[in-house]
Amino acid sequence: MIEQHDDGQIRTLKLARPPVNALDSDLIAALDAAVAAAPGEGVRGLILTGAGGRFCAGLDVQQLVALEERGLKDFLQTFVACLRRLAAAPIPIVAAINGHSPAGGAVLALYCDHRIMAAGEFRIGLNEVQVGLCPGPMIHAVLVRCVGARTAGELLPAGALLEASRALEVGLVDELAPLEAVESRAHAWLGRMLALPPQAYAATRAVVRRDLVAIMQGVGAAELELMATAWSSSETRATLRALIEKLGRK
To answer: What is the pLDDT, as a whole number, of residue 54?
Structure first.
């Protein structure tokens, strides 16, 4: 479910779950394990991207709608554990966003150090509200960290999906590149970071990511319980089922 390719001390992790790399519990756990293993295997930088010409379609809505409240809490614990891993990773991670990146796909990108997105009509955003989900305080805090409180306050309640150029304007992504150049640009960015004095770079990176780690340390069982309860509501389930039916007709 995760394709790996090493180029020197840089490793590419490619989400590989056709057709759209939707995040089910198995893929999330595989990503968590891959990020955990990399530093101990001599890897100094990670590129996160998607296979099949897509980045990540977000959380697997078919799995979400099939889970009862207890199962949803377990699923969220798995997802949050992976996000904690990304937040606390001791090596830099760059998102090579090679396609649409809604909801959970955008969340993964927000936990990376740098985001390079394919230019054009690809869209990215936290559109959870549009599919009946409340993203919760954790995701709000991470979005504020990236784009500021005012922009986050506009985007999150609307469930906005932004074209790549607009995402760059508001700071949701850091660079745009032609689709075929996204991974090479990600590799080049990591190369520049790894060329810096390593101790100074690592210490400074830890300082600027301390707030992200603190956000994740503040996520406890009570918040996950509230999210699981909210995501089990009749409104959420009806909206998710309608989305599944719509996608099935395409």
So the answer is: 86
